[in-house]
């Protein structure tokens, strides 16, 4: 069985702690680390004609921004750590997309940071960490 | 005309303060007269009947086109219907393309441009003049129009222009120039210029003045009579803020609220139909009987047919070419998939929503029948059917819905305002695309169009329904004249795309992702 760990990553403090935790775990287990950043996106939202016209351009800008500001620095910071690192940039529903990535890689472990939503907003919309803990096909570690 | 509006806008507040509604009313009247006299010839040209009959040639033009496309593509609207739904659901969308405009989004945006007053006011006009039978012809026109929409939207995507910065412009003017050049046909440029001119007029007419006019009718129905130009100035200011000021928040809120308004409208109609379930059979009976006999309306069966087809075309815009502009910005490897998706538009707009409106008007007994003969009674001019309170247009729909729920008139007023607004925003975009095709892309040229667009909001709100609706129809149908000529010449290209796609779908080369 492949030994891969998936890390859901964004620019939050908790995600940085999760990164440190997953690197140490990957080292200890000799596992590969798949770092995923998901850009929240629903194909069922509504756009104005101008937004539709500009969408392709915006998407490329968003991808570039996420790559430059998030993923590239992470890869750089992990050089010389002796861990094999893959990064992926995806659009979609955060929890569903992470689950898709786990399946695609046959990963054995998911690590995410705990996001600091207010009690009200998590009650209304559900939290990403909560739904992943419920729905992920592999053990999930939630790092505060 | 612009001068007089400006003068009116400047002097009107003073007039209002000093002498009151009577004077302000006369501003409306002057606008109305000027408007009717300057557009009459154009209206007459488009709606002139075949010699010796009362059948306008333009209606035949649309019916024949929809029939030709339906036959040429082998009943594509029924064959491809399930596949179209799969496409909208995203079954065939490559997950790696997530973040691009989805088929659902393209359809929703195009729909919020078409679903609007045509479905509420236009249908009321159709059954108010053509009787219940107009509904039958409207549904038929909607079903056939699906094939026209399929053809134009496929071409719209195939021949769009992609600019270096990644933004996209498409529409009939682009398939007319590029498609004709590709097939070695002359006149593409001429058609494109003609289409663009009519598209600008259509944007100012049906996409703008008709909306402003009916929004005013609706508001004054709720709060009481007041001069139309006041509504016009307020609307113009908001439209100005969005299209010139780039106030995206308003547009974004509208785009989000409009679909829910649409769903709520249909839900309310279903509830009313449910409450009158025993009369649904009777209503369909009236629709079928009226379709072939006219039930005593002016013009009989032909009158019902003309009204049905006219209002269906005005509502779903199939063959008009506007949808080709709306759908063309979608990124897809297969232009034909956007054609499939777009054929759902006339179905949702006309076959579902317009039929709901018509059924509610008929079932709630708004149209007055002679109790002895069952024929509909005509009003004094013998041009429209007598209604319970003499209502016409959107007021008729409002009365029908309110007869079941008194509060619904307020919801409807809000819906009309939002629909009117979203349609204006969509059409300002279509008009702008035609404008930039003619005059080039550039900030100043775009600003000129946007300012003209806002001025017409005021004119539309101040003028009477009659001249506005005539001009709106005429301009939109003029687009269809040019667009359909182009579609005839370019339909073999669509057929080639269709055959290639269908064979790959059959062989399994194109398959579902999930």
Automatic annotation (TrEMBL), chain A:
Looking at the Swiss-Prot or TrEMBL record, what is one Pfam family this protein matches?
A: Usp
Classify the source by domain of life: Bacteria
InterPro entries for the chain: Rossmann-like_a/b/a_fold, Universal_stress_UspA, UspA
Which Gene3D superfamilies does this entry report, sorted A to Z? HUPs
- List, for all copies, the residue spans of the domain called UspA: 1-144
In terms of CDD domains, this protein maps to: USP-like
> Per its UniProt record, what SUPFAM superfamilies does this chain match?
Adenine nucleotide alpha hydrolases-like (SSF52402)
The family assignment reads: Belongs to the universal stress protein A family.
PANTHER family in alphabetical order: STRESS RESPONSE PROTEIN NHAX, UNIVERSAL STRESS PROTEIN UP12
Record's protein name: Universal stress protein
Q: Which organism is it from?
A: Leisingera daeponensis
**Taxon lineage:** Bacteria, Pseudomonadati, Pseudomonadota, Alphaproteobacteria, Rhodobacterales
UniProtKB/TrEMBL annotation, chain B:
The lineage's top-level taxon is: Bacteria
Q: How does it sit in the membrane?
A: Multi-pass membrane protein
What keywords were assigned to this record?
A: Cell inner membrane, Cell membrane, Membrane, Signal, Symport, Transmembrane, Transmembrane helix, Transport
Q: Where does it live in the cell?
A: Cell inner membrane; Cell membrane
Q: Does the keyword Lipid biosynthesis apply?
A: no
Question: Which ranges does the record mark as transmembrane?
Answer: 55-75, 186-206, 226-245, 257-277, 283-306, 347-368, 407-427, 447-469, 475-494
Question: For this UniProt entry, what is the primary localization, expressed as one broad class?
Answer: membrane
> Which first-to-last residue range defines the signal peptide?
1-24
A Pfam family cross-referenced in the UniProt record is: Na_Ala_symp
Could you confirm whether the keyword Membrane appears in this record?
yes
Q: Which InterPro entries match?
A: Na/Ala_symport
Family, according to the entry, reads as follows: Belongs to the alanine or glycine:cation symporter (AGCS) (TC 2.A.25) family.
Under what name is this protein listed?
Answer: Alanine:cation symporter family protein
What is the scientific name of the source organism? Leisingera daeponensis
């Amino acid at each position: 069985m492949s030994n891969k760990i998936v890390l859901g990553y964004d620019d939050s403090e908790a995600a940085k702690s999760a990164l440190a935790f997953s690197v140490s775990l990957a080292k200890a287990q000799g596992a590969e680390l798949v770092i995923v950043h998901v850009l929240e996106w629903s194909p069922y939202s509504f756009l104005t004609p101008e937004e539709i016209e500009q969408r392709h351009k915006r998407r490329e800008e968003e991808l570039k921004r996420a790559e430059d500001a998030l993923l590239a620095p992470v890869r750089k910071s992990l050089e010389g750590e002796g861990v094999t690192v893959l990064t992926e940039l995806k659009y979609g529903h955060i929890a569903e997309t992470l689950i898709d990535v786990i399946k695609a890689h046959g990963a054995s472990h998911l690590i995410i940071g705990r996001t600091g939503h207010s009690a009200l907003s998590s009650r209304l919309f559900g939290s990403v960490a909560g739904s992943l803990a419920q729905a992920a096909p592999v053990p999930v570690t939630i790092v505060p | 005309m612009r001068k007089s509006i400006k003068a009116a806008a400047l002097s009107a507040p003073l007039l209002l303060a000093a002498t009151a509604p009577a004077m302000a009313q006369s501003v409306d009247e002057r606008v109305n007269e000027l408007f009717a006299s300057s557009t009459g010839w154009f209206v007459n040209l488009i709606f002139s009947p075949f010699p010796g009959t009362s059948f306008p040639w333009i209606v035949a033009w649309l019916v024949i086109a929809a029939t030709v496309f339906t036959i040429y593509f082998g009943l594509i609207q029924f064959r491809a219907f399930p596949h179209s739904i799969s496409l909208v659901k995203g079954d065939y969308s490559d997950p790696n393309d997530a973040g691009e405009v989805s088929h659902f989004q393209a359809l929703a945006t195009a729909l919020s441009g078409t679903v609007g007053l045509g479905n509420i006011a236009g249908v009321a006009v159709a059954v108010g003049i053509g009787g219940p039978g107009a509904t039958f012809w409207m549904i038929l026109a909607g079903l056939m129009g699906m094939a026209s929409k399929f053809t134009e939207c496929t071409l719209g995507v195939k021949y769009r222009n992609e600019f270096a910065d990644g933004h996209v412009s498409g529409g009939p003017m682009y398939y007319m120039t590029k498609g004709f050049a590709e097939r070695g046909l002359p006149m593409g440029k001429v058609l494109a210029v003609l289409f663009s001119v009519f598209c600008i007029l259509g944007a100012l007419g049906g996409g703008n003045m008709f909306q402003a006019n009916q929004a005013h009718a609706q508001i004054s129905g709720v709060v009481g009579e007041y001069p139309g130009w006041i509504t016009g100035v307020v609307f113009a200011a908001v439209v100005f803020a969005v299209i010139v000021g780039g106030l995206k928040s308003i547009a974004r809120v509208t785009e989000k609220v409009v679909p829910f308004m649409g769903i709520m409208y249909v839900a309310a109609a279903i509830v009313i139909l449910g409450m009158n379930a025993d009369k649904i059979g009777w209503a369909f009976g009236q629709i079928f009987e009226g379709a072939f006999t006219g039930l005593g309306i002016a013009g009989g069966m032909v009158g019902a047919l003309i009204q049905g087809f006219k209002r269906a075309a005005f509502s779903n815009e199939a063959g008009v070419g506007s949808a080709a502009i709306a759908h063309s910005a979608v990124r897809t490897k297969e232009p034909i998939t956007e054609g499939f998706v777009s054929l759902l538009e006339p179905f949702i707009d006309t076959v579902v929503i317009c039929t709901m409106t018509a059924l509610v008007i008929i079932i709630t007994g708004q149209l007055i029948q002679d109790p002895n003969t069952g024929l509909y009674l005509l009003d004094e001019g013998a041009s429209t059917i007598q209604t319970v309170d003499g209502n016409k247009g959107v007021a008729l729909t409002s009365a029908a819905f309110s007869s079941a729920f008194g509060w619904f008139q307020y919801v409807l007023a809000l819906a009309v305002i939002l629909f009117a607004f979203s349609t204006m925003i969509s059409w300002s975009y279509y008009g702008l695309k035609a404008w930039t095709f003619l005059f080039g892309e550039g900030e100043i040229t775009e600003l000129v169009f946007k300012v003209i667009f806002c001025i017409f909001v005021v004119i539309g709100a101040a003028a009477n329904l009659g001249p506005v609706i005539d001009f709106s129809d005429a301009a939109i149908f003029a687009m269809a004249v040019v667009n359909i000529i182009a579609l005839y010449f370019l339909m073999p290209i669509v057929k080639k795309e269709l055959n290639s796609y269908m064979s790959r779908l059959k062989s399994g080369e194109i398959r579902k992702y999930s």
